[in-house]
TrEMBL record:
Highest taxon in the source lineage: Bacteria
Species this chain originates from: Planifilum fulgidum
Domain ATP-dependent DNA ligase family profile: start-end pairs: 15-102
Keyword hit for Ligase: yes
Cross-referenced Pfam families: DNA_ligase_A_M
Entry's transmembrane regions: none
Keyword Ligase set for record: yes
Highest classification ranks of the organism: Bacteria, Bacillati, Bacillota, Bacilli, Bacillales
Gene Ontology biological process terms in this record: DNA recombination; DNA repair
One example GO MF annotation: DNA ligase (ATP) activity
Key words, A-Z: Ligase
Name of the molecule in the record: ATP dependent DNA ligase domain-containing protein
Length: 129
């Protein structure tokens, strides 16, 4: 694995989210998560992610970056420094994610009642997370 990529089922979309260039993750690391864009009030806008995915114009991408903040919400780590870690316990993998903390990557850490998490994310408008 060389360089950084942001891949979805349609290929690498790294160039459409220049904020991701500010991320540091160790070489050979593969993360699983969801890209979100929020406005000035931290309200997520899924439709803006879709709009930016379809945008090829660098000028338009720069304009969107001034209005919306991009974060990659990380759920899990699949590879760490080139080694598969899926067989390790979840809490151990979450600890490996601490190496990847920065302003663009957000990590979901939740222990306890799943119903409470479901209700809280729905209330915050994050039901699709």
């Amino acid at each position: 694995m060389e360089g950084m990529k942001a891949c979805i089922r349609h290929g690498n979309v790294f160039d459409r989210f220049p904020e991701l260039k500010e991320c540091f993750i160790p070489n050979g690391t593969v993360l699983d998560g969801k890209l979100i864009m929020t406005d000035g009030e931290c309200i997520p806008h899924f439709e803006q992610v879709m709009k930016q995915l379809q945008t090829r114009s660098l000028l338009k991408i720069e304009q969107l970056a001034r209005v919306f903040s991009v974060q990659y919400v990380v759920f899990d780590i699949l590879y760490h420094r080139g080694k598969a870690v899926l067989g390790r316990p979840l809490m151990e993998r979450k600890t490996l994610l601490d190496e990847c903390k920065n302003d663009v990557l957000a990590q979901i850490r939740f222990e306890g009642n799943e119903t409470g998490l479901f209700e809280a994310t729905g209330y915050a408008g994050l039901g699709n997370l």
